[in-house]
Structure formats: structure tokens, C-alpha cells
Amino acid sequence: MPLEDRQAIVEGLARVLTFLGPQHVLDSALSMQQPHLARTQSIISHGSSTAAQGGAAAKQLLQQLADELQLMAVLIKGMEFPGQPPTGFAHPALKLLEAAWPVLSAVADAPVCRQDRPVLEAVCEVYKRALQSARGSAKPLLTMLLTAVGELFTETQQAACLDVLSTIAEVFGEVKNAPELAAAQKQAFEDAAGAAGAVLLQRLASQGLSASGDVLRSLLAVADAHLVFARELFLSSSVLPQVFQWAVAAASLREKEPANAAFSFLSHLLAASSKVFAAAAEPVAAGGAASAEQQAAARAAAALQKCIAAHGQQLTQTLVVAACDTSPRQLLRALASVLYQLLQEQLTGQLGRQWLLAALQSPELPGMSAGLLKASDCEAFAKLALRQPPLSRGRFDALLMDFAAIPRGEGTSDALLAYEL
To answer: How crowded is residue 208: how many other Cβ atoms within 10 Å of its Cβ?
Structure first.
């Protein structure tokens, strides 16, 4: 039976279980999971030597292992239900993860499994589904999860590990009222981002950035998740400048997923920067000291200003080149969002205008040598993009897309005339 059909059956049965009483749900779910655990343990115990030999038999065995893990993930996913379990009863998803933990650890520790991407992705899928189902009830396992996922990424360099950290940020945001756990969350994020950056640097010289698109996407996605759901943690982290630079690099790629992750991260970062700058600019009450929130905002504003000032010109140049050539057409609106925010005076002052003018004056822009893009087109776009009062966000998006069509050979200069009305 195909895996998709088996997953549908498991998910359907799991949904039925959630209508039972709390204790019956737990007992029945554990009974459903037991055969998958047994088969997984059997493959690890008796099939390791076969898998290590390679060949078709090993590939089939590892695929069976990944399938069993994916079925466990579906079962755990089916344990989602509204509200918290009654007092005295643990969340079923949490108990399923606890029961599976020894087997998951054995899989993660097996050298032959660490080398197999589908198996590792399935292990991470189990972690993610447990977090998404149990949500706040999974807090007791958070430290163990952070440690396990961090070590797994260090050993395997698999992007799926970073996706688990993204899920943790989405589920828990910033951990409150638990200083040690909050510190562990921040350390895990910084360690993972640093390790991912080291992997990208190592591969950059030999393979190029495009060959590491999965790790780059996951790095930017985990940074984006922390920026959106745990903003204070991210802005106070030591990896902000590093992640910003990787986002600028990813924005230049033709590959959709890393480029989209870059535009999402940069758009959220610039939006957060505007809010932080506004908070930092609020006057302190007469005769009083700045509050802890104002001090934190001031520190974050200083870090963001330094980062934007250092890399803003390169980012603007990258966005213009990407609009003219490298960016997938379906991402041009996301690209426009980043450029629009970068030109806001309250964010970059006059620097944003200067950066755009410098980028558009480059004689090496895509389309120039082929005669598709003319200096007059760049001047017209600059005039419209920097006009006062500024274009609305929707009009700016449309303007950039019409401008991008010119060097791509998909449009003409006449399209820009409509925006002068």
C-alpha cells in the first residue's frame, strides 16, 4: 500500500481516538503507535548491517524506516484537539513523543541513518508534529529537544533540523518565567545559526551558494520565525549581522525557496526596525530613568541601524539586479515590499534614496548591454519611486513589476508613463 494511503488511514483513526475520554485516548494512541515503534526498532537492531552495505536492499530498508517514522508523525498530528487535557492527564501527543524518544534517539545515533536524508527528515517531522499538537504542554521536553536537534544539525548539517527550531519559535515564542529555559532557547538558536553559517561558508568556495539552497532557506526561515514570534530574543542575539548578510546573498539567487525566504526575512526585519526606532525615540519621562523596555529598544535600534547602514547599499544593489534579472517573476511583489520599506525616510533617512540612485546608475545592469534597458528607463523609475508624496504600496509594487519587465524583454518603457499621471 502506498505511504500516502497508509498515512490517510492512520490520520483518520487518530481523529476518531480524540473523541474518546482522556485516558482512553492515551491508551489507544499508545497501542496504535506500538507496532510502528516495534518495526522501527527491528530495522535499527537487525537491519543496520544490511543498510551499511549499501545497494538496493539498503535503500529499501532505509525507506521503510522513514515510512514508519512518517506514520508516527501522522499519528501524533492527529492528537490535536482544542484546549488543554484535564488536570492529571498529560497531552497524548506528549506521551507519544516520550514513548518514541528512545527509538528516535537510536535512529539519530545510528551512523547509517544520519547519512540518509529522508530518515532524518522523518525524525524531525515527528518532533515538529509533537510540538504543534501538544503546544504548551510540550514545555517539559523543550530543553531535551533543543539539545537533541542542535546536536543532530551539527553532526548531519540537514536543513530539517533548523525547521524544528522554527517550529519551537512558532509554538513558544519567547519563553517567559523560566530564565534557564529562555537562555537555552536563545543559545540553541545562536548555535544553530552559527553552525549553518559555517556550513554555507565551507560550501561556498567549492559548490557555490545555489548548491546549499536548502540550508540557506532553513537558516533564513528559522531567523524569520524568531524575528516574528520571539523578536526580543532575535534582536538581542549575536547572529543578527551574519543572518542579514546571508539574506542579502540569498536575495540574488534564481532559486525560488531561498530567495523567497530572504525577502520574507528582510521585509519582517525592516518592518520591525521601524517599530524599534519609534520605540527608541519615545521621550523618557521628566526626571525619570529609561524603563527596561526603552533600554532594550535603544540597544536593538543601535544594532539595527549599524546593520542597515553597513549592508543597505549592497542590499539595494542586489534588489535592483534581482528585479532586472535573477528574481523569479512570482517573487517580484515580495521583492518590492523590501525595496519599498528600504526607501522610507523614517527608516534610512536620505541614504535609501542615495542607494537606489547609485544602483540604477550602474552601466552593468542586466538588459543594458542587450539594449533592452536604457538609462532613461532607470531615470524614470527612480523619479517615480522617489516621488513625494510617495506612491501607495500597491502602486509601487505595480511600478517595480513593470520596470522589471523591461530588461527581461517582457515589457516596454511606455508602461512607466502611466505612473506619471
So the answer is: 10
